[in-house]
Design brief:
The chain is of the alpha+beta class and 137 residues long. The chain is built from two helices and four strands.
Length: 137
């Protein structure tokens, strides 16, 4: 039936939107963590940080220039910014991600509403008795 195909398609679209929401939330959390680290780095007198090197291993590292931050701004472009400017950039990025989350959530809500309507129509269709053909004599 055509409605079942729409329901399946909408379900797949909903999964994609949920994945987008998860990616946005992960990006937001990373940005918050980066802001916290940048603020702590300036406040620390020794400028020693814990640097993850992969595989669950970390080393203590001394940051030589805590006021100079290398910041990825997109399309594999990295620029040098002051610590304060890097924090502001990350805060703006967080606001952009929150706005995107809101738009994706609204779209997902609309999609779920359409899915509910299709489900109701399918249930209504299954509840209708099938008319018996009349015998013609």
């Amino acid at each position: 039936m055509m409605l079942q195909q729409y329901l399946k398609d909408y379900g797949q679209q909903a999964e994609i939107f949920v994945e987008q929401l998860n990616l946005l939330e992960n990006g937001r959390m990373e940005a918050f963590a980066a802001i916290e680290a940048l603020e702590a780095m300036v406040a620390a007198e020794e400028n020693t940080v814990l640097l993850q090197i992969g595989g669950g291993a970390s080393v203590r590292a001394k940051v030589l220039e805590p006021e100079k931050i290398l910041l990825a701004i997109g399309a594999e472009v990295v620029v040098e910014r002051s610590n304060k400017d890097a924090i502001e950039f990350l805060k703006e990025r967080i606001m952009e991600m929150e706005a995107s989350q809101k738009r994706v959530s609204e779209t997902l809500d609309k999609l779920r509403g359409q899915m509910n309507e299709i489900n109701k129509r399918l249930e209504f269709g299954y509840q209708q008795p099938v008319a018996e053909p009349e015998d013609e004599e």
